[in-house]
Design a protein that fits this description.
The chain has 131 residues and is an alpha/beta fold. It has 5 helices and 5 strands. The chain is 43% helix and 21% strand. Helix 3 crosses helix 5. The chain is globular.
Length: 131
């Protein structure tokens, strides 16, 4: 019987995925994440974008509150321009709601926690009623 040895990188990735409430999207995982059976909120951002820096802690806080109910992810548009272009991301930050791979809603700009929480609750209510 062969033993499978996990590298340190794989072990770190697995541990990070279990503990993290915010998934970092890339070319490898983008489609599998947005095609989820749960609602997926993707924050498109860039490191040079000041409004993105303001939104990030709020987005992370809401991601913790709704862990297991809504998938929260982020994509750096400078690293993955191809994905941002395909999704018509022209302003930052932009948060897009996907469900089973299709865009359902989006907004651009800074939002406070109250707005993000209301949006998340509306998303959950909608999907509960329309299953």
């Amino acid at each position: 019987m062969k033993k499978i040895i996990l590298t340190t990188t794989i072990l770190f990735s697995l541990a990070y995925a279990k503990e993290s409430t915010l998934i970092e999207l890339n070319n490898s995982n983008y489609l599998s994440i947005i095609n989820n059976n749960k609602p997926v909120l993707v924050k498109y951002w860039a490191s040079w974008c000041q409004p993105c820096q303001i939104l990030t802690p709020k987005f992370k806080a809401i991601a913790k509150e709704y862990k297991g109910k809504i998938v929260f992810a982020e994509l750096n548009v400078d690293k993955y321009t191809n994905i941002a272009t395909k999704n018509y991301i022209t302003r930052l930050p932009t948060i897009v709601l996907y469900y089973k791979g299709k865009e359902v809603d989006r907004f651009t700009g800074i939002a406070d926690k109250k707005y993000l929480r209301e949006w998340a609750n509306n998303i959950l209510d909608y999907f509960r009623k329309n299953k």
